[in-house]
Amino acid sequence: MCGIFGCIMKDGVAAPIIHQALRRLEYRGYDSAGEATLHNGKIYIKKDSGKIDEIHRIHNLDDLPGRVGIGHTRWATHGAPTQENAHPHTDCGSQIALVHNGIIENFAELKLELENKGHAFTSRT
Q1: CA Rg, the chain, in Å?
Q2: In 3-state terms, what secondary structure has residue 119?
Q3: pLDDT tens-digit profile of 91-122?
Q4: What span, in angstroms and rounded, lies between the C-alpha atoms of 73 and 76?
Q5: List of E strands, the chain
Q6: What are the residues facing 98 on neighbouring strands?
Q7: Which domains does the chain have, with CATH numbers?
Q8: Spatial separation of the C-alpha atoms in residues 16 and 77, rounded to whole Å
Q9: Sign of CA dihedral 9, 20, 23, 52
């Protein structure tokens, strides 16, 4: 189970809104959380294991720049609750950030196919 939130702001920054939404979604997943925002063509990410308030104290989730962002709370079903396994995840070039819910049943085949194309993985989820 997890909580997923996305935000597009006309004015202001998205991170504080995403942070507050994740606090409200924490009951959906409470072992790790993270946010990703897009600003001037660059993706910014803060994520870690632990509860939202704990992660915020360490990383200040509100100071990510950008008007567009996504957030995720996680209850681990595949891969341990670690910073590396916390969402959002990026592709190996940090061009795309994503969050997801559930188990991708054919993950091993997909991972092998992508590794054969030169992609590298940093998480177990």
Answers
A1: 14
A2: coil
A3: 988 999 999 988 888 989 999 999 999 988 88
A4: 10
A5: 2-8, 32-39, 42-49, 68-74, 89-90, 97-98
A6: 89
A7: 3-117 (3.60.20.10)
A8: 27
A9: positive
Of the CA atoms within 13 Å of residue 118, those in its CB half-sphere come to 1
Residue 125 confidence (pLDDT): 76
CB atoms closer than 10 angstroms to residue 63: 13
pLDDT in tens, 36-94: 999 999 999 999 999 999 999 999 999 999 999 999 999 988 889 999 999 999 998 89
Nearest 5°: CA angle at 76, between 88 and 117? Answer: 50
Q: How many CA atoms lie within 13 A of 66 on its CB side?
A: 21
Phi and psi at 49, nearest 5°, equal -85, 155
Provide CB contacts within 8 A for 10, sequence distance 6+: 67
Query: How far, in Å, are 14, 93, 120 from residue 73 at the CA level?
Result: 16, 23, 24
To which residue do tokens 């969050």 refer? 99
